[in-house]
Each structure stands twice: as structure tokens, then as C-alpha cells.
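Why do we bother with holo predictions? Because pocket geometry can differ from the apo form. Keep that in mind while you read this record for flavin mononucleotide.
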Amino acid sequence: MSDLTSVPGTQPLLQPVQLGALKLPNRVVMAPMTRCRADNEELAPTDLHATYYAQRAGAGLIIGEGAWVSTDAIGFINVPGIYTDAQTAGWAKVTEAVHSAGGMIVSQLGHAGAASHPDHHGGRLPAGPSAINPHEMSFTPDGPKDSLTPRALSAAEIATTIGTYRQAAVNALRAGFDGLEIHAQVSHLVAQFLNPRLNQRTDAYGSSSEKRAQFLFDVVDAVSSVWGSDRIGIKSPPTGITGLPSPQIPRRWPSTTSSSSASTTATWPTSTSSARNPTRELTTPSPHSPATAPTTTAPSSPTSASHKRAATRSSNGNWPTRSPSAPPSSPIQTSSIDSPTAALSPPTTATRTSRVARRDTRTTPQ
Ligand SMILES: Cc1cc2nc3c(=O)[nH]c(=O)nc-3n(C[C@H](O)[C@H](O)[C@H](O)COP(=O)(O)O)c2cc1C
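The structure, written out:
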């Protein structure tokens, strides 16, 4: 794909586009695709990952394969994580290779939730919003196994889980990614929270569509506290899990645009606020902070453009603040942009529901 950028500039797909803070050289966005190649004890990306992604750096943007935010998030074999130093260092090699080849790459943060199996958790049941079997399939070291009835996450566990997303966002920043995508589709934990069949909670995270979306909102707040709001996207499908209709994501803030779709596939904010300061964030109390101070350290000598940008912003003292009632910036769809005109006109909303192929959950984690 790396020769795409050399094609003469009449093809709309090959025109540049601004996506939040990212200026993409073309509109080809590579979908996140799990390859199950982290076949090592650490679940760390390997040199093969770096080669694979660098080979695809001609795309305007690469969405990295879903990466687990914690050990509790695991639901499939050989899928890399982004919660340890070794994993972060492995991803740093990937981003370095992609940047060296002229590309951009964002990290997709994933959590399998109930769509997992005790074999991934030392015999302990995985947890979801409620104790309801999602009837998914989990690939374990012994092969594919049916999901079981999970534990329901306690309120404290939900707070801890949100903290793991935040720490993963810190690690993604340290690894030199250009942005983040929250995996909120099909069988993943965010989609489980959004799904009225699987989420029967009666607390702040269930019983209405607004409350079912609270987990996603909290995750967005947590990762935005690390990255700012203009490099974060959400992948949410027009179809729900196990064939149910799409989980509707309610609008959290008053609308500032004339159109929106509750079932967009991927939305990206376009806020101009881009302050990111992981060092400061590590010392700033947050409702989503893990109970103990994060111990992850930055991979050795950051050299990527992202690292340099982050360092610059660290020194200017800016920090993104947002009142809960403030309107969000308008979302832009990242994948499958089919209207170059709309996509070229931020901050108006450019969303559409894309065709999403029905997946075979028995062969591929998504
Ligand atoms: C091998 C494979 C692995 C995939 N892994 C992921 C993944 O890690 N995260 C994700 O959000 N989607 C994943 N997907 C789904 C794709 O990103 C994409 O949404 C899907 O293929 C439908 O594409 P379409 O919307 O262009 O039809 C995967 C798809 C395939 C075929």
C-alpha cells in the first residue's frame, strides 16, 4: 500500500483530510484487524507487528488492532495488550516503524468483558455488566470455548476498569501513537454495557439508555484526560452483539449540529484542544485513577513526532478542561468516509452508517 500516495491527485480517496488533530494525507483508513500474533508470554507486540504495520503506512491512517487494557480484559489468545511496560515498548517499536515509513497509527483499546472464558483468567469467571451469558465464543489456549454466565461487575470494579483504560491511554501516548480508538463494537465490554439485554443494572450504569452509555462516557472522559479530545475516536457498529439491534448511544450534551446518527461506526471529535500532559496527569487526582500510582515508565528515548508533540505540550502547562455541560466537538467518521465534501468540512457532522459485514465470532475477534 505504500505506493498509494504517489498516485496523481484526482482520486478523492487520495485527497488529504483533517480528522480532529490529525491531518491525513489521504482518506484510506485501515480498519483495526486482530492478527493474533502476540504469541509470547507477555502478550507484547513483536518485530513482526512493526513490519506488518510499516508495510501499510501508505494508508492515511492505520487503526491498530484491538489491544487489551488489562489482564481482566483478555478474551482471545495471542492478542496483544497495552497495560505493561513490555507491551508499551513493543508498541513503541510499531509506531516508530510506521512513522519512519511516513504513516500515522492510532491504538485501539479493547476489553472483552463477559465475552471471555475462565481459561483466560486463571479459572475465575470473567465479568460483565450483569450476570448474563452473552453467548459468544472465546478462543482459549485449548481452542474455542463458549462463554459462560459471567460475574456482574461491582461499582468498585467498574471504577477500576475505567482506570485501566486511562492507564492504557497513558501507555499509548508513551508508545508514540497518534491517537486512540475505543473499541465499542460487537462483543466488547462497552457494547455489553450499551446492550439492554446484557445490561440489567439498576445503578448509575444501567436501566436507561443514558445510564447504559455512562460506562462509555466515563471511558471517554478517562482517556481524554490523558490525550485531550481531538485524537480520540469510538468504534461502534450499527448492529449490536448477538444479532440484536444497534445499541443506541444517547447524546450526552446538547446538540450543536443539525444531524447526528446514534449508530455511527466511528466518530472522532474535532476539538482544537490538544493539550496532553501525561506527566502532569500522573500526579493529578482523577475519579478514574487506579488506587495506586501507575508504575509504568516511558519506553526508552522517545523519538517519534508524537512524542515530540507531547513533550512540547507538556511544557506549556495547558490542560484540557471541560465542563460536563459543555457541548462536545462535532464527530467526524474515520472509517469508510464516502463523502469527501462532508469529510472536508469540519466541524459539521460527517457521519454515516456504514455497511458492516456480519462477522463470524467463531473465527475472528473484532
Ligand atoms: C481478521 C479481522 C480482524 C479484526 N479485528 C478487529 C479488531 O481488532 N477491532 C475491531 O474493531 N474490528 C476488527 N475487525 C473488524 C474490521 O475492523 C471491520 O469492522 C470489519 O471487517 C467490517 O469492515 P467494513 O465495515 O469495511 O465492512 C476485524 C476484522 C477482521 C476480518
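Residues 241-265, 269-363 have pLDDT under 50 and may be disordered.
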